[in-house]
Amino acid sequence: MRYFLLLLFTTACFPQNAKVTAYRAFSESIKEPCSIVTLIKIQEYGMVFTAESNDLNLINKLHKIKKNSNKWKKETFSCGMDHRLVIHNMFVIEVGNKTDTIFTTKNNYSIVVPNKKIQFIDKNQELNKALTDDMKAFFGRDFYKEMIRTNIQILDSIYPDKIIYKGRPFNEVIIDSIISFRSTFGIPTEWDKNDNEKYLFYEEIMTDHNDLKVELPTNDILYFTADRICIGDSESLLLQKYPNSTKHQRPYSTRYEEIKNNYFYELKIRDIKYILVFSIKDKKIDGMGIYNTF
User: Fold this and answer.
1) In this structure, are residues 287 and 279 in contact, taking their beta carbons and an 8 Å threshold?
2) DSSP H or E stretch at residue 193
3) What is the C-alpha radius of gyration for the chain, rounded to an integer number of angstroms?
4) What does the DSSP assignment read for 32-69?
5) Global pTM value
6) What is the pLDDT of residues 127-156, one digit of tens each?
7) Residue 265, Cα to own-chain centre: how many angstroms?
8) Of 194, 198, 220, nearest to 207 (Cα)?
9) CB within 8 Å of 251: residues ≥ 6 apart
10) For the segment 241-288, what is each residue's pLDDT rounded down to a tens digit?
């Protein structure tokens, strides 16, 4: 009976909808604002990255760490004269209808109590040690440096005649206007009046930047290939053929759970101002697209 009661107690404390969400500032060199909370409120894409976990052991440890942190060495907390970002990270713990928050500085060095302007130094790195492997990997990634590397990396290239749709290479189609592309490859059922040219192939539809949708016949997607690579092929083919372009993954999202499994690579298309994009999901090519670079 004692063990049965213990099980009920544990379940009651941590219901199935328990979750912790970690927030990280994209760059630690941001001078304003002082807290990641302001960055979250601004809602500017790419400024804050997140990771989630339903690990009950982690949630329990975080609760205990916050409760016991007032026994650690205490120091005053302020933004400083240059208003440098100080609260880099935030943990939001949700258990049932209750929410708790932990604010931390760079590398989770200390736990901050903003309204009291104090911080407790985590000299034994208890918080970092409590993290799950996924959370440790999340805090171990330098998203800012990754962005810098992808912006300066050298891309591999592909000739237009290597990109084939319905047996026709793209260099035979004058890709200088969206109208010529539509007249060659299909009539859109939905489109927005915009000159931006972006042609994406996913499953059995083709879309552009503003929800242009062209219905393709069943299995027609198989006729869209690039260097004999098509949607559904393994990512490993790209790694072998295009080592420069695949050196760094370009994320579609700021959610760590999606970043791990959903990203894209870019190739230059020679002689024309377009790039070819391979979308990757779960280690397979999930989509291909052509973008102008004007």
Assistant:
1) yes
2) none
3) 25
4) S-SBHHHHHHHT-TTSEEEEEE--HHHHHHHHHHHHHG
5) 0.71
6) 999 999 999 999 999 888 888 887 888 899
7) 14
8) 198
9) 258, 259, 262, 263
10) 999 999 988 888 888 988 888 999 999 988 877 788 898 999 999 888
CA nearest neighbour of 231 among 188, 190, 278, 162:
278
Residue 241 tokens read as 């053929």
Share of the chain above pLDDT 70, in %: 71
pLDDT band at 230 (very low <50, low <70, confident <90, very high): confident
The residue extents of the domains of the chain are: 2-141, 151-292
| Residue carrying the six token digits 């959903």 | 262
Helix (H) or strand (E) holding 12: helix 2-13
Rounded CA-CA distance 95/19 in Å is: 7
Token code pair at residue 127: 């918080």
State which amino acid sits at residue 187: I
C-alpha to C-alpha distance for 142 and 134, rounded to whole angstroms: 14
DSSP 8-state symbol, 213: E
Beta strand residue intervals within 128-237, DSSP E: 157-158, 163-165, 168-169, 198-202, 205-207, 213-215, 224-226, 229-230
Selected residue with higher pLDDT from 190 and 246: 246
Give me 235's structure tokens: 């990512």
73 backbone dihedrals φ, ψ, rounded to 5°: -60, 130
Say which residue the tokens 């949607």 belong to: 231
pLDDT tens digit string along 154-176? 899 999 889 887 677 777 654 44
